[in-house]
UniProtKB/TrEMBL annotation:
Keywords: Cell cycle, Cell division, GTP-binding, Magnesium, Metal-binding, Nucleotide-binding, Septation
Annotated protein name in UniProt: Probable GTP-binding protein EngB
Family of the protein in this entry: Belongs to the TRAFAC class TrmE-Era-EngA-EngB-Septin-like GTPase superfamily. EngB GTPase family.
Protein origin, superkingdom: Bacteria
Organism: Caproiciproducens galactitolivorans
Keyword Transmembrane: no
Upper lineage: Bacteria, Bacillati, Bacillota, Clostridia, Eubacteriales
EngB-type G domain residues: 22-192
PROSITE patterns: G_ENGB
Length: 192
């Protein structure tokens, strides 16, 4: 797939603003500030196509990026404590609505922070994915922030928590670790 040809397509703050589901969608999900937008940019080899921010809660809409054969979908992050209750409800409705809209979802890239234990919300999301039957991979991001031994400990912990059921792709938007693996997974879906 030609990743550099991606363009911003649209942003949906409400369910009725979702674009028609015509091409396979690659969905990026994870808690607020985990690095979803940074991962998308790294995969597309674009500096700032997806807006990133050191402040959590930046992406409050579902953002769609189109490529020649596919669509990349940047979901608003969950679990950010400092947005209002009504905003949280709106995001939850939007994301749940998206997943229940019978769209052509080709792959979900679930992103967790490799430095920490998965949050309650991460565990809920992964549980949902396991039961949904949707194809997904888990990217463990910010790997550049861990020393070799810390990294091994964290990966071991993740494998214990998920009873070896899941595949983790260590990822870093800083040094590019894991980017080729994620591109390969996307290409496999988009070039079908
Ligand atoms: P929301 O849109 O608010 O949900 O956030 P997001 O998940 O899109 O996170 P974003 O990509 O905006 O990144 C959040 C912060 O983490 C930014 O300061 C990034 O520079 C930083 N960050 C993202 N990925 C990495 C990484 O792999 N390594 C390091 N060291 N920092 C990262
Ligand atoms: Mg974002």
């Amino acid at each position: 797939m030609n990743f550099e040809k991606a363009e911003f397509e649209s942003a949906a703050g409400l369910l009725n603003q979702l674009p028609d589901s015509t091409v396979p969608e690659i969905v990026f999900s994870g808690r607020s500030n985990v690095g979803k937008s940074s991962l998308i940019n790294k995969v597309l080899n674009r500096k700032s196509l997806a807006r990133t921010s050191a402040k959590p809660g930046k992406t409050g809409t579902i953002n769609f990026y189109k490529t020649p054969d596919c669509r990349l979908v940047d979901l608003p992050g969950y679990g950010y404590a400092r947005v209002s209750h009504s905003e949280k409800l709106r995001w939850a409705e939007l994301v749940e609505g998206y997943f229940h809209a019978q769209r052509k979802i080709g792959l979900v890239v679930q992103i967790i922070d490799m430095r920490h234990q998965p949050t309650e919300d991460d565990l809920h999301m992964i549980d949902f994915l396991l039961h949904s039957g949707l194809p997904f991979v888990v990217a463990a991001t910010k790997s550049d922030k861990l020393k070799k031994t810390e990294r091994e400990t964290q990966l071991q912990l993740l494998n214990e928590i998920f009873k070896q059921q899941l595949e983790f792709i260590p990822f870093s938007a800083v040094n590019g670790e894991g980017v080729e693996e994620i591109r390969a997974r996307i290409t496999a879906v988009c070039s079908k």
